[in-house]
Amino acid sequence: MTVLVITGTGTEVGKTVVTAAVAATASAAGRSVAVLKAAQTGVRPDEPGDAAEVARLAGAVTTAELARYPEPLAPATAARRAGRAPVHPHEIAEAAAKLASEHDLVLVEGAGGLLVRFDAAGGTLADSARLLSAPVLVVAPAGLGTLNTTELTARELRSRGLDLAGIVIGSWPAAPDLAARCNLADLPDVAGAPLLGSVPAGAGALSPAAFRSAAPHWLAPRLDGTWDAEAFRVREAPRAS
């Protein structure tokens, strides 16, 4: 894949850290990587945004940000309240395509979930993925409630004819509860797509060197890593009641 769109089942699910892990792993495999943040919200002009955080953790990657709005809201709402121009899906697709002409892999990180609106016309990250004919990687939380939001996201992708590349658990707890352990088997079933990784909770707090060294062990071979979904599931599986 040349362009990979990364979305979440919602906000605060670990999407930026997963994007950094994918970028670091691809870079370690010898691929040139660019990261495009479609719209950054809730960050002042002088503050580092998600793209900068990806670069801090992943290392030598090209970063681009199409728009920045000060309030931590959906991009369409944040743009309207700030009196600024919104970002449209075709602009995201055009920027990603240009980066793809110069890099082996372009990661397009959305804002929140798949259907968060970027403009007043209701344009979403899904529309950009369609324009790019790009697969979509979904970042999901580990615990209770994730099955519903993951299945809804997967169904929406399929209803639009988009390719769901797989699911990555954005923050696997050090002491997973019963729901998280059971979800390892249930997530690929409800999504109809494979688990492609599991990033440990707190991974974003690692030093950049430690993060880059560990990242390939969190992601499956399809994402250039060495993570084995079945071995992980067996290791973490709950005991029978």
From TrEMBL:
Positions with a binding annotation for substrate: T41
Pfam families on file: AAA_26
GO terms, molecular function: dethiobiotin synthase activity
Binding locations of ATP: 12-17, 50, 109-112, 170-171, 200-202
Origin: domain of life: Bacteria
Catalytic residues (positions): K37
Enzyme category, top tier: ligase
Annotated keywords: ATP-binding, Biotin biosynthesis, Cytoplasm, Ligase, Magnesium, Metal-binding, Nucleotide-binding
Its EC number(s): 6.3.3.3
UniProt keyword Magnesium present: yes
Catalysed conversion reaction: (7R,8S)-7,8-diammoniononanoate + CO2 + ATP = (4R,5S)-dethiobiotin + ADP + phosphate + 3 H(+)
Amino acids binding Mg(2+): T16, D50, E109
Transmembrane annotation, as ranges: none
Listed Gene3D superfamilies: P-loop containing nucleotide triphosphate hydrolases (3.40.50.300)
Signal peptide bounds: none
Cofactor(s) of this protein: Mg(2+)
Subcellular localization, as worded in the UniProt entry: Cytoplasm
Pathway annotation from the record: Cofactor biosynthesis; biotin biosynthesis; biotin from 7,8-diaminononanoate: step 1/2
Family membership noted in the UniProt record: Belongs to the dethiobiotin synthetase family.
Quaternary context: Homodimer.
Its job: Catalyzes a mechanistically unusual reaction, the ATP-dependent insertion of CO2 between the N7 and N8 nitrogen atoms of 7,8-diaminopelargonic acid (DAPA, also called 7,8-diammoniononanoate) to form a ureido ring.
Name of the protein: ATP-dependent dethiobiotin synthetase BioD
Naturally occurring in which organism (per UniProt): Streptomyces violaceus (Streptomyces venezuelae)
Lineage, top ranks: Bacteria, Bacillati, Actinomycetota, Actinomycetes, Kitasatosporales
Gene: bioD
